[in-house]
Design brief:
The chain is of the alpha/beta class and 372 residues long. Helix content is 41%, strand content 17%. It has 15 helices and 12 strands. The strands form 2 sheets. A 7-stranded mixed sheet has the order 1-3-2-4-11-5-12, sandwiched between helices.
Length: 372
């Protein structure tokens, strides 16, 4: 099976990691544990039974609004409710590679993650490490620029634009957009007709304020943070996709855990489906719940001027939008970051469709990339 071009990606990721502040490095190593209950809703109900005798299930996610299902499901206790006496424990991550590393080591069992790290994790393990078992979110990615320096899309040429990390989901999308303009950029160095500056989302707003970047292709809430600093949304990535939908967050599970504890995985998926239904029925309450969990996880909530526009741009969905993941993989190949991957078997939507069917909701498809 083809694998990632290891020299390119390893050197690039190593360079990106070295550039991070020490605080971010500490948080990215294996994720920050967050195992104390943030609310009474998160506590195991007295007398509830463990699923398959399993004491705990370890769940990972990012402190981003694009991981709203995880944020809200945790804050409102909907995962714990579905898990009964099996305790949900959580770890917070800042980057996909560290979450994949944690999944491979058994430090987490299930995680919310972007498509590029999921693809990379699957291909590097020759299809043995993980499965994508559900969808979570679409959209929430924008090109935000300094309007004094960039007034139109053609003005992006020759400018310094940040992405979160070499080879991450937004980096791949931006490199693909650059190529579609007929411009040339070396994927590894980021040098060319546009300077692609890999910058951790935590420091991108400061880099923008200092003038060291002219804009950024980033997920929410970073995009809205830049707008709050005077930036202008030049392009919403959703406008580039059919039906304005593309996967930004998936749910993954280690194949070992899926095989050994399918009933626990099914319970987590039930919690996810229940959470998504609640979010879509109660958007304002859900937005507040997500912000409350962000405060628990990071010590800081988002101001309304950032939270409100960011929340509006994200679509919560159970559908993993599998066809768009395949397209994103093609974009990574086109950029030179990935050899053509064999993604057959990356999805196993059996349990999700069982949960959706029981809830009277429409089932979802795997675009022919499911377990045979």
């Amino acid at each position: 099976m083809p694998a990632i071009r290891s020299n390119l990606v390893r050197r690039g990721i190593a360079a990106a990691v070295v550039a991070l502040p020490l605080l971010a490095l500490a948080a990215c190593s294996y994720g920050s544990d967050s195992k104390d209950s943030s609310s009474s809703k998160e506590k195991v109900a007295a007398g509830s039974s463990k699923i398959d005798g399993v004491d705990t299930v370890k769940i990972g996610y990012f402190g981003n609004l694009t991981h709203a299902t995880a944020l809200v499901g945790r804050q409102e206790g909907l995962f714990q409710k579905a898990l009964g006496g099996t305790k949900a424990e959580y770890s917070i991550f800042n980057a996909g590679p560290s979450e994949i590393e944690a999944l491979n080591s058994g430090s987490i069992d299930i995680g919310w993650i972007g498509p590029s790290p999921a693809i990379n994790g699957f291909t590097k393990s020759q299809g043995k490490s993980l499965r994508i078992i559900g969808g979570s979110a679409s959209g929430g990615v924008k090109l935000v620029v300094n309007p004094k320096k960039i007034k139109s899309l053609k003005d992006v040429k020759g400018k310094k634009i940040a992405t979160p990390q070499l080879g991450n989901t937004q980096d791949v999308a931006f490199l693909n957009w650059i190529a579609d303009q007929g411009w040339k950029v070396d994927a590894q160095s980021g040098k060319g007709d546009v300077s692609v500056v890999r910058t951790d989302n935590k420091i991108t707003p400061d880099a923008y304020k200092s003038g060291s970047i002219d804009g950024a292709w980033v997920p929410e809430p970073t995009a809205s943070k830049l707008v709050a600093e005077g930036g202008k949304v030049l392009l919403d990535e959703a406008s580039l996709w059919p039906d304005k939908k593309f996967v930004i967050t998936n749910i993954i599970v280690s194949q070992k855990f899926l095989k050994e504890h399918p009933k626990v995985v099914e319970a987590v998926l039930k919690g996810s489906v229940d959470t998504n239904k609640w979010i879509n029925a109660n958007p304002d309450q859900a937005k507040a719940a997500a912000n409350a969990q962000l405060k628990v996880d990071s010590g800081k909530e988002l101001p309304a001027k950032v939270l409100d526009p960011a929340w509006k741009s994200i679509q919560i969905t159970n559908d993993p939008l599998a066809a768009t993941l395949n397209t994103e993989a093609e974009h990574a190949v086109k950029a030179g970051l990935l050899e053509k991957p064999d993604l057959n078997g990356i999805y196993d939507l059996t349990l999700l469709n069982k949960v959706l069917g029981a809830a009277g909701e429409s089932t979802v498809a795997d675009a022919g990339l499911g377990v045979k």
